[in-house]
Amino acid sequence: MSDLSRIVKAYDVRGTVPDQLNETVARALGAAFVRTLKERGDKADRIVIAHDMRESSPGLATAFARGANAAGAAVLYAGLASTDMLYYAAGALDLPGAMFTASHNPAEYNGIKLCRAGAAPVGQETGLTQIRDYAQALIDSGEAETLSGPEQIEQHDLLPEYAAHLRTLVDLSQIRPLTVVVDAGNGMGGYTVPAVLGDAELPALPLKIIPMYFELDGSFPNHEANPLNPENIVDLQKAVRERGADLGLAFDGDADRCFVVDERGEPVSPSAVTALVAARELAKYPGATVIHNLITSSAVPEIIRESGGEPVRSRVGHSFIKGEMARTNAVFGGEHSAHYYFRDFWFADTGMLAAMHVLAALGEQGQPLSQLAHKFERYVSSGEINSEVHDQQAKLAEVKKAYAGADIDELDGLTVSFDDGAWVNLRASNTEPLLRLNVEAPTTERMVALRDEVLALVRR
């Protein structure tokens, strides 16, 4: 019997196929999604469904559609899509949506990202717990096996209109010619990049795209589709240097995150990308609010203020970022994990639009990306370091006591700030017995000393 509490996470559904997530579970979740929308007073007579390139995705998506039909909703079935393409459909068509993907997880996983009409997020506090409970009841009673209703499934190709919409948001037609290596990691970037940045759907841009791993393959034969792991961008870095490219882009499995490397093959931090895009958006919308999570570099709020904007600090996670964006009507939001959110994109995240901003910023002037990005990189960061800790709260309390004389806040885990601009954040994982450490300081020496000092406390 499926226990949905094991696969329904804080923001989405994620589990192994077929033992945790199978077509019966998907059918139950489809019916429960529509029922929950109706009970909350949301639009629910029609939903849009899309999926990534995993072998299990089409079957799960179709089963979910039949469950939604059984609950009285018609389905617009988009087939292959990136997650931000599903958000595009939910926003442009004003429909609730379901995206079948496990993002960068290994091949045996799949999952579902849900949203309300207008791409508004669905998390545990906005209906996901209710969806889980309704679906569990359908599974436990055996009803999930026989859910049926009039089949109302209409096929719809989103790619051309998605590509056209993004092209209206950032004009790349007049930039200088750029050579761009793109590593799609066998994920959905291999489907979307030719349409948006190439000439598969629209007129050619002044971009020479050098594709890497564009073949859609949910077994990820070349490397894990998670560009935040340094070993997964080694091929991209090498190709950028060997081909003399202006930059490299790496997308994750569902292509909602984008990671950037400069012409030397060196990573451009997501904080620098956040600051760069924020400055561009604030040039278009003077005085607007920009959201950043508390692990992005201190350079981000500094540059937002220097650009005439209002920085607002948020907890980590898309539901918190999107919530703050909606509350403040923020023009943009960025995270250390390379998720980028845009008011012009229904407050949803899209790695492709962030990539287009980087291409525009680079192509509108003559400097190489390393020099351009340097303006947005002011501090030295440790990156995220995980430690296995079984009593996370006790360890957090111990570290807090050790730094009792410093400036401490607990917006998300424990953040300790020092007079010299250095800071430490220590957060508990939602899903594993881990503490996640991030450290930033004005110099490498200070960062290393502080990092090692905190790790000694955490791991003793």
UniProtKB/TrEMBL annotation:
InterPro entries: A-D-PHexomutase_a/b/a-I, A-D-PHexomutase_a/b/a-I/II/III, A-D-PHexomutase_a/b/a-II, A-D-PHexomutase_a/b/a-III, A-D-PHexomutase_C, A-D-PHexomutase_C_sf, Alpha-D-phosphohexomutase_SF. The keyword Magnesium applies. One of its GO terms (biological process) is carbohydrate metabolic process. Gene3D superfamilies: Alpha-D-Glucose-1,6-Bisphosphate, subunit A, domain 3, Alpha-D-phosphohexomutase, C-terminal domain. Its cofactor is Mg(2+). Residues 384-455 form the Alpha-D-phosphohexomutase C-terminal domain. GO terms for molecular function: intramolecular phosphotransferase activity; metal ion binding. SUPFAM superfamilies: Phosphoglucomutase, C-terminal domain (SSF55957), Phosphoglucomutase, first 3 domains (SSF53738). Residues 7-134, 161-265, 275-379 form the Alpha-D-phosphohexomutase alpha/beta/alpha domain. Keywords: Isomerase, Magnesium, Metal-binding, Phosphoprotein. NCBIfam families: PRK09542.1 (NF007088). Belongs to the phosphohexose mutase family. This is Phosphomannomutase. The lineage of its organism: Bacteria, Bacillati, Actinomycetota, Actinomycetes, Micromonosporales.
